[in-house]
Amino acid sequence: MLEALVIALLMLCLGLLGTCVWLSRQLRNAVQQLGEEGAVRDRRLKEISRRLDTYLTGSVQMGEELYELRQVVAPLPDKLNQIEQRDPTTLSFTQAARLAGMGATVDDLTQSCGLSQGEAELISRMQQAKAQHS
Question: pTM score > 0.70 for this model?
Answer without folding.
Answer: no
